[in-house]
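ugh ok fine here u go
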Amino acid sequence: MTDMPESWLQESERYYEFGQVYYLLGAVAFVLFILLLFFIAFVLMDVLKTIRNINTRVSSITDKVDKTAKQVQDLVNDVNTRAKGMVTFVDDSAHKAMDLIEKAAPLVLGIGLILKMKQIADRRRNGSKA
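structure:
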C-alpha cells in the first residue's frame, strides 16, 4: 500500500496545481469584482451629484417661470379690467349720445321743416315777382 503508481502521483500533483491556479484565478476575479463595484459606486455618486445640480437648476428655472407667469397673469387681469372700463365708458358715451340724438331729433326735424318751408315761401315770393 505504500507503493503508489508514479502516474497516480503525477496526476494528483496536476490536479493539485490546477486547483491552486483555479483558486488563485477565483481570488483575482473576486478582487476585480470588488474593484468594479467600488468604481460603479464612485460613478453613481458622481451621477447623483450631477442630478442634484440639475435638480437645483430646474427648480430655479421653475420658480422663475412661475414668477413670470404670475406677473403675466396680473398684467392680463389689469389689461382686462382697463379694457372693461374703456368698453363701459364707450358704451355709456354711445348711450348718452343716442339719448341726446333721440331728444334732439324732433328739434332738428322741426328746424329742418321750418327752413324748408321758408325756402318754399322765398321761392314763391321770388317767383311771383318775376
